[in-house]
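To whoever picks this up:

The parser on our side crashed when reading a file containing two proteins. I've narrowed it down to the boundary between the first structure block and the second sequence. Both blocks are reproduced below exactly, byte for byte. First block:
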Amino acid sequence: MPAPARFRRLVLAVAHGEAGPATLRAAAEAARLLRLALHCVLIEDEALHLLPALPFARELRLPTHEWRPLDPAHLAQDLAATEAALRRDLAAIAARLGIAQALEVQRGDPELCMGSLCVAGDVVVLAAAPAGRPHLAARLHHAALHSAAAVLLLPAAPPPPAAPVAVLLSGPDDPALATAARIALDSGAILLAVLAAGDSGAVAQRAAQLGIGADRLVVRAAAGHRLPALAAALGITRVQLLVLDPAAWDGADNDGPDLAEALSHARGVPVLLL
């Protein structure tokens, strides 16, 4: 069964020095779960290329441990080495998981580059913020969360793939159920539906129409739309993915993206915002 028609690829943007294999592996596993190609974009910050021209810019050279003026040739070599390592790791991980992949290099302001990637039809990966660059990560997250793209919040240590797929429903008619049901069917996972308000029977009826039988569905009623009630309904169950449609939560007690980030951080679970 193909991925939902609105999704065409999973986009992972990484800045220089942040292309860790753990992040690549987690994004590739998410692409396999969603049945999407993984499109990795290496963003070369334009500010890095301007540093050698600054008279006070210095670099620590090994093994002599001497401070020297920045050498544009050394910078170019470092950037090329980063691209080569990323290309090699991406190809190896994609081949092992059996997914399509591509690597693109963009040069410019990271926030503007991220904005250009966030288009309707794509799922943009937001990985856990790298140490030492929280402000940049916050700006990139803001750009993605307020864009036309769907967003996948990826925690530092995702749960095991054998866990259920979960969906947060503001009500029985929440459109996120259709996407979550298709992902659960594709992966062979149990579907856990957390219902903030409404009739659980109506959710089961819709799930059955989507191909999720009673033996593959768990519906848990939450005591409202607030984060503590939803977290309590999830309980201690580890899930491999949590699906949420922010538009369905407009006017609720909390904002959809804020709720998603809180749950992703607190529970260590990837959250797909449609």
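<<boundary where parser fails>>
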Amino acid sequence: MNKITLGIIVAIIVVGGGIYIFANKQQYSAPTQEQILTTSNNQEIQQGAGSTTTLQTFSTADVSKHNSETSCYTIIRGNVYDVTTFIPKHPGGDKPILTGCGTDSTDTFVRKHGGKQEMEQALEAMKIGTLAQ
């Protein structure tokens, strides 16, 4: 993949994430390790100026219920992401995202995008919780 193509993909992801955040009237900044506080069943992410977002804990069964184009959750590295709004924006088409709805997509994501900071940051913006241990 050349740098121009990668730049276009990154721009699409950044713009899509911005539109998603604006549409949901949320302000998001990626948390640092120090900002993540674990509680008994939830995680709270401190987002500056005293604002917090509570992340839920999901079972695999909970995630499996969100297996469609209208409600698509996926598990990656033990975290749960709502990727529903990203389905039509995915540069590789909707099929790769739809295939992972309701399932653990760690292997697919890592194989295609793992370690690419732009992709990891885009994914982090869609995080809604963690997988129950």
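After patching the parser it read the second block fine. The longest strand covers residues 52-58. The two ends are 37 Å apart (CA to CA).
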